[in-house]
Structures are given as C-alpha cells and as structure tokens.
C-alpha cells in the first residue's frame, strides 16, 4: 500500500502507509520498524566528535525503543572525515536503506554537499554538530539541533572580553574548512561590534603542522587572547608551539573546542581556554543528570557536548514522528519545523520552519583541565 507523490522539493517520495500509525504522541503506534540513518565521522580527523555522537545517539535509540509504540533501527555510517565518504554514506542511507530521516554529518564541511543531496532526494536531515552559517537555508528538508556558531560566539566573545579584559587580540583561522571560515567571519564581526582590536590576523590549512610564521606575528604583539578558529588536528600543534614560544595569552575557541579529547590533548596549554557551546555537564537542564548517569553507566566515560546533541537529535525526530504518528519522510519534514518547545538536556530547544534551532548558549572556561561554567 504505497502512494507515489511529489514533494515540495520536486523529488519523488513514496508514502508508505505501514510507516504511518494510529494515535498520536505517547499513544502513537507504528507497525513497521522505523529506520533512522546517521552519518558521523567515526574515523580520522573528526572522530574526536563522531565517537561521542555515536554513543549519544545509540543511548537515545535504546531509551526510545524501551518506550511503547515505535521500534527504531539505527543505520550508522562512517564518513571517514571526508566529503566523498559523507556523500557515499548519504547515498546509501537515502537509496539502499530508505531511511525515514538522517542525523549528521559531523562537520559543516561535509554538510554543504550532503544536505544538497538529502534535499533533492526529499529526505529530512537533522544536523547535531553542524554550526556554520547557511546550513538550514540549504532547503526545507534541512534542520539543525546544533547551536549555530553565530550564537555561540555572540555569547563567548563578550564573556571573554569581560573575563580577560580583552582589548587587543590575535585571530588565527583555518582557511580551508567551511566551518572554521564561517566562524572566522563571525569572530571578526563580533570583535568589531565589541570594539576589540585585531592586531594579528593569520590563516593556515586544515592539515598544517608548522605554525612558526603565524606565531611569529603573534609574538610581535602583546595580545590579551588568541582567538582560534580551527579543528583539533591543527589546534594541538598550534597551541603547543605557541606555548613553547612563550605565548601565554589564553585561547578563545570555536565549537571544536567543546571536546574533552581536545582539552586532554592540549593538557596545561588549555588552561584558561574560553568557549561557547550548546551544553554543559554542570547545567541543571531537564534530564541532564539522568543522561550523564546513563551515559557513564553504558560507556564508562562522561558524555561531551557532541554526545548530548546527538542524544537530543534522536528525541527531536521521535517528537516529530509522534506528532502525527507518521514516520514518512514528508511528515517528519513537516513536523521537525514545528518543534515549538522541547525541554532537552540542552535546555529548552525549538526548531523553526526554516530549520533553524533556538536555544540558550553556555560559555565555559577550562580550569584544572575541566570545563567550568563561566
Ligand atoms: C562544524 C562544527 C564542528 C566543530 C563539529 C565537530 O561545529 O563543522 O560545524
């Protein structure tokens, strides 16, 4: 019993009546197993986030499957931290597995390609860590439950200004990645608004390992902070080389810095680092203590922001399905854009019709090797 129809995106979609059930909300009952796809970077450069995302998502699916009415099957693909890998993974989930929706990918750098594919196939995609500007605008099937970097920096830069009495800074950015370039633009806008001088403005590539030239420029100026828009692969050698050269200014970082893996790798060099983000272990948000306890019990380590966002993403899709008790792609798309308020471990969160998330950012500082609310 399938009926072909044409979606707003112009894509052919097939409404499967076995995926639409009876009742709504907690009473919803769907006979067929609902396949959810996920694409994360489980290996290579972005695995620092991808592994936590996998764990957070699997925990949520386990909890959701313990509830009545809907049985989820998670089909998880690794994109190997490459655009090509991500494109292949999306293609598999869309066509081979016929998933109802896709969570991921890990990096904005992949999302600009893969979301174009999801949009033209008429498959709803929910980003849980993609924070660059312009992502929900890719189309009406594209959503995110990941705090945009614009919102994170609008909180972290004024907080850093106050904490560090920040008047003059160095801005260093990776000019080869969509997210770090987007965040760089936001950083310069935000610094301009706050009247903070950019004394050094230097760039590098994602895979660079020697930052002597850029750091030499930083050494010439007496900056109050180094604002760094980079992924961990470049961040670790860059910050270590900065400290070896005697640059002691604290780091203000972007979303990739919300990672215990990165903070651990930086060791003492991370002390005083300030970062804005979507979640804190210290927040008394609904279900946070239970989430942290369940995560620790299952994985024998504490969750991070990326785990908390992936966990929340699964619950948001469940909410969207239960709204009309319909796990067809078109219905999930319609209902994801109507999440007016959902009380999550990230705090109250909503998604608008344009696919954009609204939530309150947190700003954290690294003290004694751990994230602390600022
Ligand atoms: C993006 C990000 C990354 C740092 C997530 C791991 O925010 O690519 O948008």
In short:
The chain has 374 residues and is α/β, with parallel strands linked by helices. The protein has helices at 47-66, 83-96, 108-121, 149-164, 178-193, 212-219, 232-244, 260-266, 288-299, 305-324, 329-336, and strands at residues 2-6, 12-16, 34-40, 72-78, 101-103, 125-127, 142-144, 168-174, 197-204, 225-229, 251-253, 274-277, 342-344, 347-351, 357-358, 362-367, 370-373.
Folded structure, characterized:
The chain is of the alpha/beta class. The chain folds into two domains: 2-147 and 284-360, Rossmann fold, CATH 3.40.50.2300; 150-277, Response regulator (Rossmann fold). The protein is built from eleven helices and 17 strands. It has helices at 47-66, 83-96, 108-121, 149-164, 178-193, 212-219, 232-244, 260-266, 288-299, 305-324, 329-336; strands at 2-6, 12-16, 34-40, 72-78, 101-103, 125-127, 142-144, 168-174, 197-204, 225-229, 251-253, 274-277, 342-344, 347-351, 357-358, 362-367, 370-373. The strands form four sheets. Strands 9-8-10-11-12-16-17 form a seven-stranded mixed beta sheet, with helices on both faces. Strands 4-3-5-6-7 form a five-stranded parallel beta sheet, sandwiched between helices. A three-stranded antiparallel beta sheet has the order 13-14-15, covered by helices on one side. Strand 8 (168-174), helix 5 (178-193) and strand 9 (197-204) form a beta-alpha-beta unit. Bound molecules: (3S)-3-methyl-2-oxopentanoic acid. The site of (3S)-3-methyl-2-oxopentanoic acid has 13 residues, from helix 3.
């Amino acid at each position: 019993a399938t009926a072909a129809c044409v979606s707003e995106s112009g894509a052919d979609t097939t409404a499967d009546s076995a995926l639409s059930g009876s009742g709504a909300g907690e009473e919803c009952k769907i006979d067929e197993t609902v396949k959810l796809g996920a694409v994360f970077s489980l290996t290579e450069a972005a695995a620092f986030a991808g592994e936590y995302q996998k764990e957070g998502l699997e925990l949520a699916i386990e909890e959701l499957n313990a509830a009545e009415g809907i049985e989820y099957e998670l089909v998880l693909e690794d994109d190997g931290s490459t655009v090509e890998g991500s494109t292949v993974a999306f293609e598999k989930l869309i066509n081979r597995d016929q998933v109802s929706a896709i969570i991921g990918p890990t990096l904005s750098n992949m999302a600009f390609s893969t979301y174009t594919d999801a949009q033209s196939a008429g498959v709803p995609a929910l980003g849980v860590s993609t924070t660059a500007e312009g992502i929900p605008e890719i189309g009406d099937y594209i959503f995110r439950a990941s705090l945009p970097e614009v919102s994170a920096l609008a909180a972290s830069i004024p907080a850093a200004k106050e904490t560090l009495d920040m008047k003059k800074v160095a801005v260093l950015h990776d000019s080869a990645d969509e997210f770090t370039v987007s965040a760089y633009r936001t950083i310069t806008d935000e610094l301009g608004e706050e009247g903070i001088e950019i004394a050094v403005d230097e760039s590098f590539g994602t895979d660079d390992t020697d930052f002597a030239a850029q750091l030499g420029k930083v050494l010439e100026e007496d900056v109050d902070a180094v604002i760094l828009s980079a992924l961990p692969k470049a961040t670790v050698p860059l910050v270590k080389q900065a400290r070896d050269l005697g640059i002691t200014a604290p780091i203000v970082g972007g979303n990739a810095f919300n990672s215990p893996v990165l903070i651990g790798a930086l060791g003492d060099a991370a002390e005083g680092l300030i970062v804005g983000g979507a979640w804190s272990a210290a927040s008394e948000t609904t279900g946070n203590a239970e989430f942290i306890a369940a995560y620790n019990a299952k994985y024998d380590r504490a969750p991070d922001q990326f785990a908390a966002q992936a966990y929340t993403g699964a619950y948001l899709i469940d909410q969207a399905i239960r709204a009309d008790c319909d796990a067809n792609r078109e219905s999930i798309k319609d209902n994801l854009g109507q999440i007016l308020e959902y009380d999550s471990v990230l705090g109250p969160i909503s998604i608008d019709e344009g696919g954009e998330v609204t939530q309150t950012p947190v700003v954290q500082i690294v003290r004694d090797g751990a994230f602390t609310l600022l």
